[in-house]
Amino acid sequence: MLVINLLCILVFAFVGFAKPTPIKTCTVKHTKGADDSPAILDAFAKCQTNGNVVFSKGVTYNAWTPFAVFNLSNVKISLDGNVDLPNSITIVQQKINTTLNPPTTYATPWIYIQGDHVQLVGSTSKDGGRFNGYGQQWWDNGVRTLRPQLATFNVTNGYMTRIKVIKPVAWGWSIPGQNILIENHLVDAKPDNSTRDSTISFPFNTDGFNLSGQNITVNGYYGENGDDCISVVNGARNIVAKNGYCGFSSHGLSIGSLGRNGAVQTVANVLFDHWTMEGAVYGARFKSWTGGNGFAENVTWSNIRTINVSTPAFVTQNYYDQDKGPRPPNTSGTSTHITNLKFINFEGYINPNPTDGTCISNPCWNFVAGADATQSIILDLYNGTAKGLQFHNFQIHPYKKLSSSTTVICDPATLEPDDIKILGFKCVRGPYQPT
Predict the structure, then answer these.
(1) Is 412 inside any structural domain?
(2) Residue 185 known to be catalytic
(3) Spatial separation of the C-alpha atoms in residues 403 and 432, rounded to whole Å
(4) Which candidate in 227, 228, 273, 356 is catalytic?
(5) What is residue 21's DSSP assignment?
(6) In degrees rounded to 5, what are phi and psi of residue 348?
(7) In a domain, 159, yes or no
(8) What is d(CA 267, CA 293) in angstroms, rounded to the nearest whole number?
(9) What is the dihedral of CA 364, 368, 373, 376, to 10 degrees?
């Protein structure tokens, strides 16, 4: 039933475009060496309804000031050219600190798009449809203050295709809308002068997508980055993310984090299907904060290939800032409840390094006692709040070792007897033994 309901999202997305073809074209004017943000806003104002806003082929526009467009109706955005953010850390910080653009879960976006029946169509050329963030200099200098999220696509009945995000400062696209289909997305957040395991020029927090909306499908994704490729966060419902590749040092296909500072946060009905994770810290990940509230239910990760991934499947209900000290006591006695999380058809091998270049504290932010680069599954659960977890067909082995060397970390005291029966492997701190 879950899979059937989620696959229906594609139907919702296409039905949402049963509106007339845009009848007015507004080409954005470009002035060499000047800020094009006013011209961008002017084009959207003229084509706010039943319009086609065109960024011309072969032109790189200077979006040197954050901008927001609201109340679009039946608008196509033809990104045949490219859009540049300022190539200056100081200018970006100054302007993101003063913009009135609505903030997202993690930051304030440089670009905010809101409306109904909105299409964002990138160029068929690899050299067009680009958003250039000039993040390399931020990574080189270790700057992690006043960073913008690239953009928010807050639309109902939306479509996005062939968008290329090149060297974003940090987070990429926030998607809080509903009935949205995203296809063939590219993220290049791999530094030019660093490696997965280096703290030099590491691209911190370069998430590909933060999804918090409803009825959203991501079909076709290629990304190299230093954080989650897909992060499904509070409020999300009916999400499908499929046919993707995450490289460099992804932190996985993630639910959360949820429940920080005891917040009530919820996620339901999510499917991750057919992904290749290469060099990632995590393949599939769920994370909720110690003492959180709310729930996550009906989440499936299926057909996941892990190449050199530190932990293929990781679930924690005890997430916390490890660089700020030991785990705080759970004084509230609560946790974000998880129900029906399924992990099906995983194959590949484990990276001998349990972390990556984000490890700049002692202990590391993702330290797990006893982890030794042989674990295919790590469960860090809060007693009595995890129901219906299932793991099936895990063909994972440590680097240059046999499958028989694969281990798991699981505490049976955190699960009920009926849940241990359906778990799919023996819940121990020791060898992986499918059941």
Answers:
(1) yes
(2) no
(3) 9
(4) 227
(5) P
(6) 145, -155
(7) no
(8) 12
(9) -130
| Domain residue limits at 424 | 189-194+207-349+376-434
d(CA 19, CA 371): 54
Total number of domains in the chain: 1
Which pLDDT tens digits describe the chain residue by residue (435 residues)? Answer: 444 344 444 444 444 556 677 789 999 999 999 999 999 999 999 999 999 999 999 999 999 999 999 999 999 999 999 999 999 999 999 999 999 999 999 999 999 999 999 999 999 999 999 999 999 999 999 999 999 999 999 999 999 999 999 999 999 999 999 999 999 999 999 999 999 999 999 999 999 999 999 999 999 999 999 999 999 999 999 999 999 999 999 999 999 999 999 999 999 999 999 999 999 999 999 999 999 999 999 999 999 999 999 999 999 999 998 878 888 899 999 999 999 999 999 999 999 999 999 999 888 999 999 999 999 999 999 999 999 999 999 999 999 999 999 999 999 999 999 999 999 999 999 999 999
- CA 173, distance to chain mean position in Å, is 8
Cα–Cα distance measured from residue 361 to residue 369, given in angstroms and rounded to the nearest whole number: 15
Question: Annotated catalytic residue: which of 251, 337, 356, 397?
Answer: 251
224: CATH: 2.160.20.10
Q: Would the pTM of this model clear 0.85, i.e. be above it?
A: yes
Closest-CA residue to 289 (of 340, 327, 252, 253): 327
Distance CA 416, CA 409 (A): 17
Beta bridge mates, 390: 342
- Tell me the two tokens of residue 239: 């999400």
Residue with tokens 């809060």: 382
- CA 281, CA 250: separation in Å to the nearest integer? 6
State the Cα angle at 251 between 217 and 161, rounded to 5°.
30
88, part of any domain? no
> What is the phi/psi pair of residue 277, to 5°?
-115, 120
- Contact present, 120 and 113 (Cβ < 8 Å): yes
Q: Which of 378, 382, 380, 391 is nearest to 420 (CA)?
A: 391
Residue 258: inside a domain = yes
What are the backbone angles phi and psi of residue 339, rounded to the nearest 5°?
A: -140, 130
The question of whether 227 is a catalytic residue gets the answer yes
Q: Is the separation of the CB atoms in 403 and 349 below 8 Å? A: no
The two three-digit tokens of residue 256, written as one number: 């959360």
- In the three-class reduction of DSSP (H, G, I as helix; E, B as strand; rest coil), residue 93 is classed as helix
The residue among 175, 130, 172, 169 whose CA lies nearest residue 154 is 175
Kindly write down the DSSP assignment for every residue of 372-423, as one continuous string.
-S-EEEEEE--TT-EE--EEEEEEEEETTS-GGG-EEE--GGGS-HHHHHHS
